[in-house]
Amino acid sequence: MTSIPDAKAPADEVVLEAIGLTKHFPVRRRLRDLFSNRHDAVHAVDDVNLTLRRGQVVALVGESGSGKSTVARLLAQLYPRTGGDIRLHGASTRVKAGAAFRRYCARVQMIFQDPFASLNPVHTIRYHLTRSLKVHGNAGSTDAELEQALHTLLERVALTPPERYLDKFPHELSGGQRQRVAIARALGAEPEALLADEPVSMLDVSIRLGILNLLRDLKERLNLAILYITHDIASARYFADQTMVMYAGRMVEGGDSETVTQSPAHPYTRLLIESAPDPDRLTGVSDAASPKDNGEPPSLIRPPSGCRFHPRCPSAMPRCSTDLPVPLQIGDSPGHWAACWLYDTEEVAK
Ligand SMILES: Nc1ncnc2c1ncn2[C@@H]1O[C@H](COP(=O)(O)OP(=O)(O)O)[C@@H](O)[C@H]1O
Ligand SMILES: [Mg+2]
């Protein structure tokens, strides 16, 4: 592990990278497979590249089952990877348990979708936050220092005055307040990166914006690198600097959020945007996670050959079912790419 950089680190410094990240889950074999010697696996994540920088939010967008949570869990080192690399400040890291895992967690924290499930109902907010501070050595050396640290955490997530919340149990708080506690607990580790897996999907529409604004404020004040996972591409535009679109375990498009959401290139991204009911959906979100075409995401045990989207794609060409598309630069907006043969200029020139 590399040493922790100082707080004056440049804003665009790379914190965490996925390079060719791949995860295949073995499928329990049926009896007949034992004889055919087949080794099936769910191809949940294939060859994913992702870069998280300080002071930036990257949105990872895709419909349910596309592999988003698996990417987050791999980055959090909760699963071993099948292939590829995870680099923390440029150093390849693979940790399983014990002290190395705790050191990694101190720098890369996860926030889950369901704040009720992630807080233990028998313990108070004070208990949850104290534990986080102590595990990561941020509790100070006296009771007064601990109390001060607890207050600071609650103030950071705008649960004020802190004394009103410290001795409450999770069930005494609203969903939004619980998610704020879960975020405060993550901050207790003083992390550099937050992996937020659908952090607002289970909350009432009316409070989603408040939580996203809090995360944005933390990004700016604490110079955090944030991965924001969502099936809601409209919120990515609002909240994220960069947007990456994932389909059936593969990245299909990426670039700055404004470009990807306003000028989407990949037919799948277009479908996602068309199926979003209202561009200002943060105030009127429906939870529709799937585009309204008649297609369905493919089996990840035997994913389609070539481009995984080709069976659903309105623009599919013959080569799309045979050749795996490579990322291709789109137009002249820097950093905008799509893995789609429509943008193969050699092909277009023919
Ligand atoms: N622990 C697991 N074992 C087997 N398959 C899994 C496991 N976790 C996820 N999967 C499968 O991997 C695919 C991607 O899942 P997931 O990463 O949860 O997608 P998303 O978060 O985008 O909805 C799905 O087909 C899912 O069924
Ligand atoms: Mg998920």
TrEMBL record:
Residue ranges for the region (Disordered) are 277-306
Any Pfam family matching the protein: oligo_HPY
Output the InterPro entries linked to this UniProt entry: AAA+_ATPase, ABC_transp_ATP-bind, ABC_transporter-like_ATP-bd, ABC_transporter-like_CS, Oligopep_ABC_C, P-loop_NTPase
The alphabetized UniProt keywords are: ATP-binding, Nucleotide-binding, Transport
Q: Does the keyword Transmembrane helix apply?
A: no
Q: What SUPFAM superfamilies would the database entry show?
A: P-loop containing nucleoside triphosphate hydrolases
Domain named ABC transporter is located at 29-273
User: Which GO molecular function annotations are given, in alphabetical order?
Assistant: ATP binding; ATP hydrolysis activity
Instruction: Answer whether the UniProt record assigns the keyword ATP-binding to this protein.
Output: yes
Report which superkingdom the organism of origin falls in. Answer: Bacteria
Name the UniProt record assigns to this protein: Peptide/nickel transport system ATP-binding protein
Its lineage opens with: Bacteria, Bacillati, Actinomycetota, Actinomycetes, Micromonosporales
